[in-house]
């Protein structure tokens, strides 16, 4: 995208009247599918509502509208479908908390048996993906079922009151990892990073994305939709409620997570990393942590610089491990 | 209605649920005043014309016309303006200021190339206005008055119009064909130009010509002298006269070694001109230090590149057959130069005085109600003098002396005269809230280093009056325009539209207001305001 170098905000924002139509995002168009329409009951500033519209809209566009989706229990499901209203403008099925990948596999198999080309997208929160739904997900991967499975990672069980999940980061306060513990918040040395586990299945496509880089996210959905078989997209979606952050900071937090190295953006095909999104303006993890009440105990009256340093070390490790410092892309 | 088992309600859309009721704050689109426009003495709406220019080929004419709303001299300004807009530009805090002046020149030159012209915006009013002085102030006033439908006569003492733009600023900075073309366009609006016509008795002039109002812009034509002991044998001449003569094609005999006394822009122009006239040594004598020189740094640098030498902290105390005596100075704690009692001799064949200019106000003698302080004429906020219907601007009123300020005065005076002629009292407009750097979300802007204008190589500069600074080519001019951050106003980047989790931003077809907030659904999260690159959205508390 070198010729857009001087186009004011280039491709860093949602749109840009100076870009060619091919370089515009789906979200920039008034005719975007609005897979989740207005009136849904997500909290003010919910990153999951935003991320789900971003992902589904591009998937719907890529599939020529011929797409169905299945959704595990969790905020996304609850806020979009309080009986008898629905915010969904795509065929949408609610399964259970733990079986969305399996239901998606079944749908894909059924549609195939019917000779239909309809694409299938499975969706779940991090709890539904990395914890309770994980056996079904691994099975879906291992069988290479023709499903794009999307995890909206807000790093906790938000819908039931912010409990810790396998994706909750160390030191974060949740309802089950108190800031009064020692060490405070979620334990270091626990948890898992499912994108790497997905890669270990050698499936056609695995990628991470965030709501702060729309062009990157849409390109990844587009790539995933070009492929068939098991594909996995893991999207970081800040949660103002669970992270105790300002509702206006949702996109900012997603950006700081990637710019600090806390959340690496990359893509992999058949188990090999094929691209990383380099950090543009690196920031210390401090900038990211301080905006969130779930880390307040690291900075308050009894600050824990030692823990901040451990978090910084983890971010630095990501930067080296994934080559986020630019050249590696 | 027949429902399946255990179902009692029809399915419906979430749109029935008006989440706007949750809101405690609402986003409001604003348009703040950008520093560039704030900084432009001619009152140009810089951000807006840059935005037009950003469209490239299809936008250049629109951009030029927008400049012409305020300033009839884009090609001239794009060459000689000291561009305070760029000093104020927010992009300067990010990397380097937008090259506003270079883009303006590009647009001005495009207009000349395509012969774009302007027409009056109002039908003839039947009212008559006199403008005294055809410098930038007078010509700007004449241009705006003519566009507003008034019958304008400009009287000037000189044989050609332009004032200091023609008789002061050297051709290597402002080629005369460019100046001529932009003046011609003004005259083309039906302005009557009376050249070789010094106004000696304004009262009589106003009466005989049955003028309803007048704008005075006679500039400051008198070179300031300094006391030098009698018997000075070496040639002593005045910078304004020297530049005037050169602009008329004369090549005064100055000798090999020429000293220029003064530290302003006129001194730089004089020294650079002297070099071009063949002097081997041109040395500027200035009583303070380089950083305290009033001359624009770029002019000092250009003079240096052409071989002009500088003698700082020095005053001329005596002139004799083969040069000058200078006294060394030192700066006191307030930065004022104080004599040290140490003297030196500086060999020179002639001395050019560039010590500033004064205004000749004698043609106003006997007019009641006028007041002058420190040799310049007093005016109010609307540029009206103490006499109703008589306005003044440019170098003859107390303000910064530059062509750009003069153009701005001309425009403001024209507006005041227009309201006055319509029997209204002129008022001044109030500026909006400023678009400060901290309102911008600079992460979004691409890295885009500034492009610089090419310059003529120094060897050719020292001998010819060819234009030194060249224009940007079309591609670079476009890139430069697109470096603008659009401070404080929406530039339709779609961030608010795309990043609303509630799909509560609606795109419109109105370029003046590309988006509206759907308050039925907006929960007031503030993401749109936080992610707007330009700071064009403000969150406002809802009334309880
Ligand atoms: C050497 C030099 C270089 C400069 N360089 C720059 C520059 O690079 N950029 C910049 O912005 N500014 C520059 N300036 C300043 C700028 O030229 C002046 O501030 C500007 O021209 C003032 O405009 P004005 O219309 O008030 O007066 P002027 O330009 O001086 O015009 C006044 C006109 O009034 C006429 N006149 C005077 N008395 C009478 C009378 N009684 N009757 C009829 N007509 C009369 C004169 O003939 C003249 O044409 C420079 C000035 C000098 C001297
Ligand atoms: C088997 C089962 N256990 C527990 C629950 C209660 N429950 C509903 S949603 C949820 C947490 C969802 O967390 P996550 O998947 O991360 O989604 P989020 O709400 O954070 O988006 C839980 C525990 C359930 N619905 N089913
Ligand atoms: S709790 Fe978090 S994820 Fe759930 S709706 Fe609120 S902001 Fe969104
Ligand atoms: S970036 Fe553009 S709008 Fe902002 S001050 Fe500079 S020229 Fe003006
Ligand atoms: Mg979750």
TrEMBL record, chain A:
It is an enzyme of class 1 (oxidoreductase). Its EC number is 1.2.7.1. Residues 73-235 form the Thiamine pyrophosphate enzyme TPP-binding domain. Residues 163-184 are annotated as: Disordered. Signal peptide: none annotated. Gene3D superfamilies: 3.40.50.970. One of its GO terms (molecular function) is thiamine pyrophosphate binding. Keywords: Oxidoreductase, Pyruvate. Residues 167-177 have a biased composition (Low complexity). This is Pyruvate ferredoxin oxidoreductase beta subunit. It comes from Nocardioides soli.
TrEMBL record, chain B:
The keyword DNA repair does not apply. Gene3D superfamilies: 3.30.70.20, Alpha-helical ferredoxin, FAD/NAD(P)-binding domain. Residues 513-542 form the 4Fe-4S ferredoxin-type domain. GO terms for molecular function: iron-sulfur cluster binding; metal ion binding; oxidoreductase activity. Pfam families: Fer4, Fer4_20, Pyr_redox_2. Transmembrane segments: none annotated. Keywords: Iron, Iron-sulfur, Metal-binding. It comes from the Bacteria. This is NADPH-dependent glutamate synthase beta subunit-like oxidoreductase. It comes from Nocardioides soli. The lineage of its organism: Bacteria, Bacillati, Actinomycetota, Actinomycetes, Propionibacteriales.
